[in-house]
Design a protein that fits this description.
The structure is a single chain. The chain is mostly beta strands. It has two domains: 137 residues, Lipocalin (Beta Barrel); 112 residues, Lipocalin (Beta Barrel), CATH 2.40.128. It is built from no helices and 20 strands. The strands form two sheets. It has a ten-stranded antiparallel β-barrel with strand order 1-12-13-14-15-16-17-18-19-20. Strands 4-3-2-11-10-9-8-7-6-5 form a ten-stranded antiparallel beta sheet, with no helix packed on it. The chain is globular and about 60 Å long.
């Protein structure tokens, strides 16, 4: 369930000259312990039969839990199979390629939901994510509202920020083979990578050398805003991501390598 939150792959950077002295340039390592993915609310509504509506923020979609590929979160396809009354399997695809499989399991009392995602990164290395969600609405089954209580995002790939052209930056995730070459004119810049939905773009505004406000879009639709904040000592970079309609941001913390 947590996987859509990794729209973090759609990233951007600055509006100041990208020189070697730019404080954002460097190699950054993800710090799971300092990051925060708690408090995210997802809602599943039963529509009759095996049809459900999934909602997160202002993103929602309907599908049948019949094992067939159907449009899900923007740019992705899900194939949902009911393995047992308390267990679902969700196969995720982007650009026609399988990115991984989620297994969702209800606790015996129906008040907790655990997720286990196993997939493959762009470079062929494995990716595993784990999550525990607590019920805040509904009484039985998967239908209801679920709020993230504990999430391990896995080894989010290293992020590299480098100069590009006269005044741009290149932001890349080598493990995922994701790259964005950013110009500093406020234009939507293409995000490229095997697991990045086609039509993904990012634009950016930089108010000062240590702060950025980014806007990620898919085919012109705004998905999220991302605030970058660099610590005073220049060694900690915090990315605060608020999805459209979301009530609480995801916080990814990176440390300079």
């Amino acid at each position: 369930m947590f996987r859509p939150a990794l729209a973090l792959l759609v990233v951007a950077a600055t509006t100041l000259p990208a020189q070697s002295t730019d404080p954002l340039v460097g190699t950054w390592e993800f710090n799971q312990a300092k990051s925060d993915f708690q408090g995210q609310a997802y809602t599943f509504a039963a529509l009759g039969g095996n049809r459900y509506k999934f909602t997160y923020g202002d993103m929602s979609f309907e599908l049948n839990a019949d094992g067939t590929d159907q449009p899900a979160f923007p740019g992705s396809m899900w194939a949902v199979t009911i393995l047992a009354p308390n267990k679902w399997q969700v196969v995720n695809k982007v650009n026609g390629q399988t990115t991984g499989t989620d297994t969702w399991t209800l606790s015996a009392d129906g008040q907790a939901l655990t997720t286990e995602f196993k997939g493959t990164r762009g470079d062929g290395s494995p990716l595993e994510q784990h999550g525990t969600f607590k019920r805040t609405a509904g009484s039985t089954g998967f239908a209801g509202t679920w709020v993230s209580a504990e999430v391990n995002a896995g080894a989010v790939s290293q992020m590299v920020v480098a100069p590009f052209g006269r005044d741009g930056l290149t932001v890349s995730y080598p493990g995922d083979k994701v790259t964005t070459n950013l110009t500093m004119d406020g234009a939507d810049c293409a995000v490229q990578g095997p697991a990045v939905p086609k039509g993904s773009t990012t634009s950016a505004h930089r108010s000062d050398p240590r702060s950025l406000t980014l806007t990620d879009k898919l085919n012109g639709r705004t998905l999220d805003t991302v605030d970058w904040s660099l610590s005073a000592d220049g060694n900690t970079l915090t990315l605060t991501i608020l999805y459209a309609g979301g009530a609480k941001p995801f916080v990814y913390v990176y440390e300079r390598r």
